[in-house]
Amino acid sequence: MPFEPIITGNVGVPNAWEIDVYESRGGYRALAKALREHQPEELVDLVSKSGLRGRGGAGFPAGRKWSLIPKGAPEVYMVCNADESEPGSFSNHELLDWDPHSLIEGVIIGSYAIRARVAFIYMRGEFWKPTGQRMEAAIAQAYARGYLGRDILGTGYNLDLHLFIGAGAYVCGEETALLESIEGNRPMPRPRPPYFPPSIGLYGKPTAVNNVETLANVPHIVLNGAEWYTRLGNPPRNPGTKVFSLSGLIKRPGNYEAPLGITLRELLFGYGGGMLDGRTFKAVTPGGTSTPLLTAEHLDVRMDYDSLPAVGTYLGSTGLIVMDDTVCIPCAVYHMSKFYQHESCGKCTPCREGTSWINAILYRITHGQGREEDMPLLLDLSDNMGGRKTVCALGDFAGFPVTSSIKYFRQEYEYHIRYGRCPTSCQPAEERQWTISQP
Amino acid sequence: MGEVGCSARVQREAMAHDVAKDIAALVKGLATTFKHLGRPATTVQYPEEKRPVSPRYRGRHMLMRYEDGLERCIGCSLCAGACPSRAIYVEAAENTDGERHSPGERYARRYEINLIRCIFCGMCEEVCPTQAIVLGHDYELADYDRADFIYTKERLLVPQPTKGPTSPPTPSPTRGGGWVR
Amino acid sequence: MDNLATVTIDGRVVKVPRGMNLVEAARLAGVEIPVFCYHSKLKPVGACRMCYVAIEKVPGVVTACTTTVTDGMVVNTKDPRVVKAQQGVLEFLLANHPLDCPVCDRGGECPLQNNTFGYGGPVSRYVEPKRHFAKPIPLSRRILLDRERCILCYRCVRFQKEIAGDETLTVINRGARVEIATLPGREFDSPFSGNTIELCPVGALTSALYRFKARPWDIRSSPSLCDQCSVGCNVRVDTRNRQIVRLLSRENAAVDDGWLCDRGRFGYEFANHPDRLTQPQVREGTRLRAAEWEEALYQAAQGLRQVVSQRGPGTVGVLVSPRLANEDLYLAQRLARAVIGTSNLDYRLTPHPTVSPLRPDAASGSIVGLEKARTILILGADPLNHQPVLDLRLKKAASLGARLIVVDEKQTDLAAFARLWLRPRSGSLDTLARGLVHLILANGQVNQEFVDRRTEGIDALRARVADDTPERVAASTGVPAPLLEQAATLLATNGPASIVYDRDLGASDDGAAAVLAATDLALLTGNIGRDGAGLYPLVRAANEQGALDLGLMPRRPSPPTPSPTGGEGGHAGCPAGGMTGAEMLDALRAGQLKALYLLGVDPLRELPDDRALRDGLTGLTTLIVQDILPGPAQELATVVLPGAAFHEREGTLTNLERRVQRLWPALKPPGKARPDWQIIHDLARALGTSFDYAQASDVFAEIASVVPTYRGLTYGKVGLKGVQWPLDVASGQEAGSLYEDPGDTRLAFTPVAPSTARIV
Which of A313, C300, C356, C723 is deepest in the core (most CB within 10 A)? Predict the structure, then answer.
């Protein structure tokens, strides 16, 4: 399939993060066009018409999100969520690394569209070197060229862009926790209602929070028009492309920009080069570990925001961790559960206690101390944490790998419980680090 | 006179009958006596001798200890709360590392039962979370002075276990690792 | 209808205000929704996830605390999904919660126990090892934290941030390792820290003082009042073994809003002190010996009689504590004026301050009225130190949108919450206050309608402040003129405005003039006599307001003395003149006083190194000391009479907003000690009067009949929540604000120079 990459076009170009290189490749033309030729409302319409959906995971239409910002609000903020922390996802990181200016351009256009005067890029703390430093330099360059600051390109539009480096917490990827973090508070998600960022966001003001990829798409839509965008991918509801992160036991791991709606088979066996020699495909996390697993029976499912929910999972942040027949699923899920018990912020009870409880049960199961009643217990605990019973979705996320793996690989759990060892030749998980007794 | 003679006869007959009956009764009675002559006596020579009581008999309370000599009582006052005759008084204090009476943070500094008020219902035993208070088999509770019916902790507490030389005295310093419930 | 929403909760239809959350709405409907993190005084956070409900047409379950009602909402709190989710939450909470309820101070009154009993499942499926922390770690001298028991509802952290405003507690770590902690290197040093103990829904935060003292079923409770300061917070006294084991808040929204400061909450130990006076004592040679009441009272009466007959009543002094109840104070002044015949009577040892000329001499508004204020000028007052719970109310007003203007050279606690903080140089407070008056006059921001209708003397005022131009004021106070301008504009245009100042401010020269200017400011801007607007001279001691109301000072109209037949006898027999407390101390030093009756006051405790004073006390013919604890003056006393503490007696206290509130006896006084009013009554009888009060309420009934401002008050009316005087006898309504009624009498701008405005 002939395919021209859109947002990863600058990845791999030498010094693509320098403003001269970026401009020489057509950078900041979209900004000039947007600011000079469009009213903010027209831009919101344009993005709405393009059908661009939020790339953060939920797939909420970006144009609709912007249109929810109340018109005439005196103070509005634009926040770019660059806190990519999902296990298995690394697409934003590469984009930020190579192409900070395209994000900056997208942020400026987005801010103009919602009439924000201040914008933030919230970047994960671990990205500081070199990504954050490059972004800092890029913002300085953009200020120097007059793309940021007062009277941008002589249009009278003012915008200040701040790079905010987080301290490294998975939950900061949740937009309200991210806003708390920018405000200087402990990042704990806010209850919704009443806190709904488009009406009560950063500092209690209307705020648009958009993902890196979403904003990186915006300049291209401005340049090429909504019509062009709606022809890409899997229209009408899933236009455009998505950068898929392939990792795990696959021949060619890496980021691949592919049209939405591509089949899992093409993604894994076409782009990814297929399984390692002599291995067979067993399971994959379609959108990072926070989404239910897919198995070999799902190889022909189309990877987009509507086809995956039909098979009980989500596109999420398209971090595909591939597992083949050598992987013991309970051990893999145990590792995932360790991540969630470590990253739960501790605000609401089910997630705080449930993630570590599930982790403890999986530890027992994978270390030869499983009990018959553990499997129904795991399912019930996942139910008590999930189904929107927690403030943010982390409670649901932590349960997804558990419930889906029990659904598809029940016999592996039973094997573990009955024989006390892995059904595959998997290495036993290391000792559990979970004693917090202290003086 | 015939009348009289008749009645005299009747009287004589009746007398003979009575005598026979009396003798029969005497024999019957003595038979019982003789029957028991050979058997062991059932009289209990209290106080030299004491009858055993039912295992579930509710006599005077005891405050128990763990095998290592620490008091079971943690001074939680649940017994005082459950007592229907308000006969129990508990004053708690904190165990320290240098002076440990019971596991955990808390012990009973004062523990008193007013046995005049106590109705031996066993609710205190029922409610005790550590099985510290047990109603024993001691029922000889008479005394000369009303004040002596207030049983203090010293009188209620069972003695230190003697078996094994390892039992530390109570209170004792906290051992390494500490107590955690 | 427009601001009410109709909701159905478990089949019960209720109308509740729009915007109310579902927990409160259910309370109104008589349905209980279990909560841990939710508290009606704190912002909902939805952390504990206990308050799940099912709402029709809404998928899944939602938390009631973060859901506001909408019209036509149908809520089910007993839905099977809700029941399962709540059981799940309790199982999660108990997974790591230690089962040490028997040794936990919260056991028996613990929301976690109650909710588990009411909503929990039968067994826990948790078999893993529990999380362990070292058992309680002290967060401060007063408060211990048991991190194992903490269920992380964040109520304590939120209280410190939202209500106390000092953020002394924080959260550290993540997930199941989360802990409540103080800031690094600091202890939990908030003056309101004790409230977190009551807020804590488990036994995680416990009081070091109450630790292991009693269990809830060992305790007897009685309503009472805190007597540490003039706010008069309502407390619940918990006693065991004839000792106070703890004080808890007894919420009175009008006074304390449900909070106590640490001084009040933990400051009860004097009442339990082993040295409490339990027996009257009389002097025998060089030492005191225990005596019976009859003997002690006879000796005291003889001593007084002797001095009065030999040296005249003018050599007798009576000093009373402003912490004593109204009943004590009233009888003390009757004893002094009508029985002994002296006006050497005072409740303070320091000179009296200059006060606002408005009468009555009291705060014109109410504490709760401050919440309605849009602007509050805080002039040389530091409520955090003297009226702590009022400090919380001012912070609440600020969070409700009031603009605070703090005028203080020191950085007071409220300065951080103020819109404007003006820092006049030491001694220039009056210049600044007059400067504000000048600005309001010069800028034409005067409330002309109010000034024309209700006041007099504005022209003289205009002339008096003519020279206080912003430039001059800025030069002499060091406060920039634009700030003055902003303050004046806020006061004049952002009404209603209240002015809060320390009543003792008037004791200094600049403070006296500032107090008078504050009155002018209130009158000029019409900020008096309505909710949110008023003048608040803050008194300090628990019943200082009562002492003012009952005339416990010389040269102030005393309450008329009732004649022995019961009618009002006017001021007959009430001697003129008399010395203030400060003057009495001087007279003592000069050896001019011969007898002194100290009621709860010990001048030597205030001035321990004053040798002349000690000599004066030593030289007294008769020194009667009535107190609850030993003090230095008792060593010199001829008679010592043991009084009762606040929780051992009946009586009333009047707080800084004129609220008369009741004390109840929780315990009997120790030993042979008696309530103070009874001692004064007995002493008066020993002096040959026909005083005849069977109980404290008899004294109060007489106060209500002779003191105009207390008219209509009875113990029954005062009740549990207190009443603000003056009571409108016809309607039974209490007055939130004084000077409401337009009436005939006009309010005068301060007509005089400060030096002549001194009252006493």
Answer: C300
